[in-house]
Specification:
heterodimer; A: mainly beta; seven-stranded mixed sheet; about 55% strand; globular; B: mainly beta; about 50% strand
Chain lengths: ~110, ~120
């Protein structure tokens, strides 16, 4: 299965600032996703990152707050903009491998906004 | 829409006890089903999966059978260990009749398992 490198692993940020999270995969994958896991909660899909075009956002998530880039088949970034304490969560990158129909997750970015 | 419902947690067991975590789903297309495990402070790891009805996924002593008639994918293990303490997530992805996957995973709420020596 694909190996994902997600950076940073954790960060503490001031409210009103922005943080960009990077997701690098060791092989070409068809689909890349960004999830949010709020404290003690399950995972919620933020968006599907599309190569060379705008991401597809789920209900409740907007591009201005969570801009996403995917310049090629192995790399994507998620930015959390104008942060507030409510954005404190774990953000996870996930990829889908067409070869074995599996989904692989990065180790996550634990974000705390103060 | 698509949804996954897991049994309420947390679950606390003694070592070597039998484990069942219930998972039921609703799906608008043809689902594939997954169990993921999240150990403390770590990301999600795929535990097992099943892609069609009556398939049984198994790994590390855990098993789950895709039951279309009851729309269920319950996780079982015959003898749990302290090292199995983690959060377990049931999830599904859906393919339409044409075989096109919508790609995304829909997760249940997660079940916290604690195993005591």
């Amino acid at each position: 299965s694909a190996v994902i490198s997600q950076k940073p692993s954790r960060d503490i940020c001031q409210r009103g600032t922005s943080l960009t999270i990077q997701c690098q995969v060791d092989s070409q994958v068809t689909m890349m996703f960004w999830y949010r896991q709020q404290p003690g909660q399950s995972l919620t899909l933020i968006a599907t990152a599309n190569q060379g075009s705008e991401a597809t956002y789920e209900s409740g998530f907007v591009i201005d707050k969570f801009p996403i880039s995917r310049p090629n088949l192995t790399f994507s970034t998620l930015t959390v903009s104008n942060m507030s304490p409510e954005d404190s969560s774990i953000y996870l990158c996930s990829v889908r491998s067409i070869l074995n129909y599996g989904y692989t997750f990065g180790s996550g970015t634990r974000l705390t906004v103060v | 829409g698509d949804s996954v419902t897991q049994m309420e947690g947390p679950v606390t067991l003694s070592e070597e006890a039998f484990l069942t975590i219930n998972c039921t789903y609703t799906a608008t297309g043809y689902p594939s089903l997954f169990w993921y495990v999240q150990y403390p402070g770590e990301g999600l790891q795929l535990l097992l999966k099943a892609t069609k009805a009556d398939d049984k996924g198994s790994n590390k002593g855990f098993e789950a059978t895709y039951r279309k008639e009851t729309t269920s994918f319950h996780l079982e293990k015959g003898s749990v260990q302290v090292s199995d303490s983690a959060v377990y997530f049931c999830a599904l992805s859906v393919t339409n009749a044409g075989g096109t996957s919508y790609g995304k995973l829909t997760f249940g709420q997660g079940t916290i398992l604690t195993v005591h020596p």
